[in-house]
Amino acid sequence: MNKKYLTILMMGLALFAWQLTPITLSTAKAETETHDDHGHDNHGHDAQEGHAHDDGHEHEDGHDETDGDNHADDHSEEGDSHDNHGHENHEKKDSHDDHGHGGHDDHGHGGGDGHGEHEEGKVEISPDAAKLTGVQVQKAGPDTVAMTIPLTGRIILNENKTANVRARFPGFVKAVHVNLGDEVKKGQKLATIESNESLKTYSVTAPMDGVILRRETNIGDVTDGKELFAIADLSTVWAKYHIFPRDVSRIKKGQLVNVHTLDETMRQTANISMLFPTADTLSQTVIAIAELSNENGIWRPGMTIEGEVGVGEKQAGIVVPRTALQYMEDKQVIFIKSGNTYEPRFVEVGLIGTTNAEITSGLKRGESYVSAGSFVIKADILKGTAAHEH
Questions:
Q1: Residue 286 belongs to what H/E stretch?
Q2: Which of 78, 169, 199, 347 has the most neighbouring CB atoms within 10 Å?
Q3: CB-CB contact of 381 with 121 (8 Å)
Q4: How far, CA to CA in Å, does 89 sit from each of 95, 103, 127, 286?
Q5: pLDDT in tens, 193-234
């Protein structure tokens, strides 16, 4: 070959090799960066070194690395498994905690309120808690069941001791000597009148001791037969009651009635002195009157009052206060106390009096029962029953 052409060929190959080298290096660099992104740079380099050695250790190095990788993977899987297992345990613990708290909230009453755990239909209450909530206990025994009829009425004037004062002769009022609310004595001058016929003056006097409740005249008025004053003796007043038709046959003249104010701060026992022979047209009630002593003036006409008329009584072997009775499952119950435990017992009720009731079955003489505060026991049992249902 011509030396000239050989020289040109060598230069062309050299130029081609020079252009190829950057591309190869760039490609290798890109591959290296790709391996770095995947976290296999060191592993890949070690592997190449392991295979590049000719001293027979490349297999061991590769084996060690493989074992290391496998061990790492196994460890990672075990770690993941451990984490999952721990999470499951944690969930179980949470579930256990929730169950524990729920059970405590629903069934536990032994905190600081003195209420113990509920058994089905029972409740345990400490003596201090029972006293604090007004629970009272007594032993069952005999008593008298008193029957009464409740009444509602009003204090009115004693109409037998009330006077409406008028002038004896027509004329002009020359003077008025008393005012509304004044106490007067029998014969005391109330007004001075000038007669139309004689043109002489005369006095109008009080016909009885009492209090001026109305003054219907002034100086200069013409009497003309109209009422001038109303006087009432308030040393006695009437308790006026309305008797409903269903009770009329059981109330008689002479029966005792316990008269009292609505707040029961004032009370007096009196006899029924009068039963009107006629009935009220609108209410169809019959009026009963009981006269009250009022020397100290505590009974004021217009006051609303209540009363009870005794209509009979019965001696019974087992009698409990009406406050001991409660309804559960549409039946009447009382609560029996044994130690600090209270439980309901169904009873049969006989005669029901004003304040107590006869028990015909379900309670024995000498048994301890809740006589007051029974609603507290009922509420506590119902609360515990509702918690057990959940």
A1: strand 286-293
A2: 347
A3: yes
A4: 10, 21, 44, 82
A5: 999 999 999 999 999 999 999 999 999 999 989 999 999 999
